[in-house]
Specification:
By secondary structure, the protein is mostly beta strands. The chain has one domain (2-142): Pnp Oxidase, Chain A (Roll), CATH 2.30.110. It is built from three helices and eleven strands; from the N terminus they run ββββαβααββββββ. It has helices at 38-46, 59-64, 76-80; strands at residues 2-7, 10-15, 19-23, 28-34, 48-53, 84-85, 94-95, 100-112, 115-127, 134-136, 140-142. Strands 2-1-5-8-9-4-3 form a seven-stranded antiparallel sheet, with helices on one face. A two-stranded antiparallel ribbon has the order 6-7. Strands 10-11 form a two-stranded antiparallel sheet. Strand 8 (100-112) and strand 9 (115-127) form a beta hairpin.
Length: 148
């Protein structure tokens, strides 16, 4: 999945390997971010972010651009040639090609080893295009695929 945020007209994004739901009531999600990451610094300032579930057509740029380059040094959205649209509840940029988006406000940030766990409350969640999200486990798999 790709996490996006913005602060003071600057945008940042990263591919997140570790994200999960952490509470039913209230509904909270969590994303782990490396302690030196630029996107983490931006989330800490903005106190909001968007989680994008990656569709198959985004999987390559999720790894090669959003997962490998720093938003501090390059405009990942331009490099990935994705379409950025306005968000509904937060100021984070939304990637139109993503299958599903969760727009979140930060509830808590906790240091866990060499990462920070960002706990967020989804304010709105929606599908952008009806495409199915994919998972990364020994390669790319569509939801419902048997992973051996």
């Amino acid at each position: 999945m790709i996490v996006t945020t913005s602060y003071m007209k600057k945008q940042a994004a990263m591919t997140a390997a570790w994200a999960t739901q952490v509470s039913w009531d209230p509904p909270y999600v969590a994303v782990a971010m490396y302690h030196e990451g630029y996107t983490l610094k931006m989330v800490r300032k903005s106190r909001e972010f968007a989680i994008h579930l990656v569709s198959e057509d985004l999987s390559e740029v999720a790894v090669k651009v959003f997962g490998s380059l720093s938003s501090k040094d390059v405009d990942k959205f331009e490099r990935a040639k994705v379409t950025v649209v306005s968000s509904k509840e937060v100021k984070a940029p939304i990637i139109k090609e993503a299958s599903t988006v969760y727009e979140c406000k930060v509830v808590r940030i906790s240091k866990v080893g060499d990462h920070y766990l960002i706990i967020g409350e989804p304010l709105v969640a929606y599908s952008l295009n009806g495409k199915k999200p994919v998972l990364w486990c020994k390669g790319i798999h569509k939801i419902g695929d048997l992973i051996e």
